[in-house]
Amino acid sequence: MKYSVIIIVLGLTFTFSCQQEHMPKPKGYNRILLPENEFQALPDTFPYQFDYSKYAKILKDSSWIAEPYWIDLYYPNFGASIQISYKPVNNSEQ
After folding, report:
1. Of 14-18, 52-56, 86-90, the least confident
2. What is the band of 15 on the pLDDT scale with cuts at 50, 70, 90?
3. What is the structure's pLDDT at 52?
4. Structural domain total, the chain
5. DSSP codes joined into one string, the chain
6. Which residue segment(s) compose the domain that 72 sits in?
């Protein structure tokens, strides 16, 4: 008796759930509106140089393993950051 009720309920569920035609959703792409490109030079206090976006803020790396000249380029409009580390390279031969 118990199993026959379960079989009937499952049978009715499958029967009525397959009556509608279902179509998959079309592919969609996220749209991120980016501001116009504007760049500025990195300050001369660093031993390396590059241009970075005017929309980014330079923050000192706050991790416990941070070394001198390690920075984060923080983009507040996007909640994202790029971590930049620096190690001098010695020209010693091995």
Report:
1. 14-18
2. confident
3. 94
4. 1
5. -HHHHHHHHHHHHHHHHTSS---PPPP------PPPP-EEEPPTTSSS--EEETT-EEEE--STT--TT-EEEEETTTTEEEEE----------
6. 55-87
